[in-house]
Write a structure and sequence with these properties.
Blueprint: E1 2-3, H1 4-11, H2 15-24, E2 31-32, E3 39-41, H3 45-58, H4 62-68, H5 75-114, E4 129-134, E5 137-146, H6 151-164, E6 168-169, E7 174-177, E8 187-196, E9 208-211, E10 214-222, H7 228-241, E11 244-246, E12 251-254, E13 268-277, E14 288-289
Helix pairs in contact: 5-6
Protein name: MerR family transcriptional regulator
Length: 292
Amino acid sequence: MYTRGQFSHIARISMKALRLYDEIGLLKPGRVDAANGYRYYSRVQLEEAARILEWRKYGFSLQDMLELQPLADTEEGRAELMGRLREKQHELEAEVEAKRLIIGELAARGADLAGPAQENVPEAASYGISLSLAGGLYMLSCRQTTAIQDAGQLVGKLYETLFARSLTASGGHLLIYHQEGYEPDSTNWEAGLPIQLPASGFVPPEGLVRFPERLCASTRHNGSFSKLGLAHAAVLDWIRDNGYEADGPPFEQYAPLPLGRFHPSSAVTTVFYPVRILTGFEPMTSHENAKD
């Protein structure tokens, strides 16, 4: 047996943390001396301590750890534990992806500042607007009300289902905005991943939906996501100026990001707004209206 001080040293856990873990029942001493109250820990508990350090490194809270601790004791619990670990993996991957995008934007901004000064040309003028049918596809879907930074987790769940069922994506993922206005901590949105339906023997997975085909005004945005609002503004301006009105939640479709070193200029996002024509206006006959 080891004293609390000795165990703190060899387990690499502070005395303060050991006292807290004892109080909440996460890691209680193997023996408590009834005479003097001294706490002693066993060699076996080093494995428990190592697991707690791992969970802490992964970003689990103390409450999470208390919930995870008993799961490894049963087959059913281990399956749940695997699911919790996968959820944390997707969460961390989303955080890494977000940081990677920010790093790319920082590099691009530095390159812009290092180059010659350019005339400030209104960026919305460069957006070409298309009017065409969009949708009409099958996709894996996950709709939740979450914080904006958790969007990556929704998409991650779809890819997890895709790989688990050996399915093939038929395009980049979508984000559909079911909520009017900007609420960073509680956004009601739906992530969708278009898939190819197998020719035979296909059992539809949970969350498979058919995304309806709609008449949409759309435009393509190349570059930083921080300026994606310009694309939305361009489409909304076109809708207003050409006798249409928005008729459903807008959505964005993202081209797969390149592997390796990422630069914001390589990001491609298409912005869609379902529309209907206002009474008294003649429908557009041109598929492309570049600068209206």
